[in-house]
Structures are given as C-alpha cells and as structure tokens.
C-alpha cells in the first residue's frame, strides 16, 4: 500500500526540480537516469571529489563542446553549492564524472535517455574502454548555487526522492 503514495511535484508553471546525488555512495549518479521536460531544473549535489560533465553518446567520457560542466569539486564549498542546470529540450543528455577513472569505471548518467538503442548501459559499457576522461577548462552551462538559491529557483518544489534529508 505504501507504494501507492507518490511524491508531489510542483510542475504547473515553474517546472520540476530533479536532484541527482553525485558520488554519494561510490562511483554512481543517483538516480542514474531521470526524465525531464523543458523548464525543469536538475540539481547535482556533489560529493568529494566528483564532478559532472555533459558528453556525447558516441564518445563516452569526452565532453560535449556545447554542454555543461560543474567545475571541480573544490569550487563547491565542500558540496554546499549545487550545480544547477536548466532542461531546455526533450533530447537525451549523457553525462559522466571526469575525475580519474570514474567514467571508465561506470560513473555515468543521463536525462531522457532511451531504454533501447542508445541506453545508459550501452554508454557505460563503451566508457569502460576509454583511455582518459576529458575535463573542460572551466564551469559552463549551469550555475553553482547554495541551498536557499536552489529553493527560490524551483518554486520550492521537491525532487522525486522519497527520503527527506
Ligand atoms: C537557467 O534559467 C534561469 C531562470 O531563467 C536563468 O537565470 C539561468 O541563467 C539559466 N541558466 C543557464 C545556465 O542558462
Ligand atoms: C516561488 C517560491 O515560492 N519561492 C519561495 C521559495 O522559498 C523561499 C524561502 O522560503 C522564498 O523566499 C521564495 O519566495
Ligand atoms: Cu566521480
């Protein structure tokens, strides 16, 4: 019966806020994938010493020149600042952590990634044979915001996570 209790979303005008934990428990983005629509916001909560870089499906662990990069963890005030991006299309977005061999070891995730064809598992599998991850020179495509700034942005909507922290 508990399974029937769904989290609430504030989606009407402001878009949903999705939260992704980056390396909270090992080399994973949690959730690994999410579904979002234009107007939504994705908040990456970074844990030491991870980052998030947007890539391309065809070249895992290499950055997308037009994509986002959180900058290094050292710029986040020990994770207090979250990296916030705007979702601007329904197209699939693939991303990875460029620290050391994290991407090669499976630290990848995505937004609106298909469940057949160019899946997150296929991206992850291809990442395993990459020699070196690419890290952009500086933060781009998003903002580092503290918790109150994030709350103000998203109309105080909550993520889909069932566990409050
Ligand atoms: C995301 O949208 C907000 C609100 O419109 C805007 O202030 C911010 O600059 C946008 N961020 C990016 C990276 O475009
Ligand atoms: C859109 C909205 O209601 N934003 C509010 C979110 O919460 C902060 C802090 O309480 C308010 O200042 C915002 O107005
Ligand atoms: Cu990492």
From TrEMBL:
Keywords: Copper, Metal-binding, Signal
Domain of life: Eukaryota
Keyword Metal-binding carried by entry: yes
GO molecular function: copper ion binding; electron transfer activity
Annotated signal peptide: 1-15
Domain Blue (type 1) copper per the UniProt entry, residue ranges: 20-113
Gene3D superfamilies from the UniProt entry: Cupredoxins - blue copper proteins
SUPFAM superfamilies, alphabetized: Cupredoxins
Pfam families named among the record's database cross-references: Copper-bind
Cited InterPro entries: BlueCu_1, Cupredoxin, Ser-rich/MCO-related
UniProt keyword Metal-binding, yes or no: yes
Protein name: Blue (type 1) copper domain-containing protein
Record organism: Curvularia kusanoi
